[in-house]
């Protein structure tokens, strides 16, 4: 993924109801993610159109997955699995021993996908948030 992919990716994130922030915030965050993680953020294209994205981020200890999205017209064809595998491999190469991801409560329909990929609900932690900007 490159920053040139942003507009198409953002439209996909909105289409798949990922709960994205404003276009300005998402663009700034994507620029930072790609700068820090150039080898673990990916897109899938079909006929020059982005149909899938994933952002794999390594913080020096763990990997995190953000914005795994596949266009609804292309779901259930293996693209999500391929993106997840590619990001996991890239994160493992840079030293991530574990990968975390978040599923918004409004998007629980994706849980069977992740559970099928051997992700487990992380029962011994609460996700807390503080908005800084």
Number of strands: 4
Q: With helices defined by DSSP (H or I, 4 residues minimum), what is the helix count?
A: 4
Q: How much helix, percentage-wise, in residues?
A: 25-40%
Name the shape in a single word: globular
- Which structural class best describes the helix and strand composition? alpha+beta
Strand content: 15-25%
The mean pLDDT is 95
Based on CA atoms alone, the radius of gyration comes out at 14 Å
- What oligomeric state do the depicted chains represent? single chain
Second-tier CATH architecture: 3-Layer(aba) Sandwich
Distance between the termini: 25 Å
Main-sheet strand order equals 1-2-3-4
Low-confidence stretches: none
Annotated CATH topology: Aminopeptidase
CATH superfamily: Gcn5-related N-acetyltransferase (GNAT)
- The first-level CATH class name: Alpha Beta
Whole-number count of domains = 1
**Helix-strand pattern:** HHEEEHEH
Structure description:
By secondary structure, this protein is α+β, with helices and mostly antiparallel strands. The chain has one domain (3-116): Gcn5-related N-acetyltransferase (GNAT) (Aminopeptidase), CATH 3.40.630. 34% of the residues lie in helices and 20% in strands. The protein is built from 4 helices and 4 strands. It has helices at residues 6-15, 23-36, 79-93, 111-116; strands at 41-46, 49-58, 63-70, 99-101. Strands 1-2-3-4 form a 4-stranded mixed sheet, with helices on both faces. It is globular.
């Amino acid at each position: 993924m490159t920053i040139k992919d942003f507009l198409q990716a953002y439209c996909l994130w909105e289409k798949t109801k990922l709960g994205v922030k404003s276009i300005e915030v998402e663009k700034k965050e994507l620029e930072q993610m790609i700068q820090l993680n150039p080898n673990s953020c990916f897109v899938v294209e079909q006929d020059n159109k982005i149909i899938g994205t994933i952002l794999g981020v390594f913080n020096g200890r763990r990997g995190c997955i953000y914005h795994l999205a596949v266009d609804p017209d292309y779901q259930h064809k293996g693209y999500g699995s391929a993106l997840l595998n590619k990001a996991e491999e890239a994160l493992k190469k840079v030293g991530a021993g574990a990968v975390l991801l978040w599923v918004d409560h409004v998007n629980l329909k994706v849980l069977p996908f992740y559970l099928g990929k051997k992700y487990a609900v992380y029962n011994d932690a609460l996700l807390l948030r503080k908005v800084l900007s």
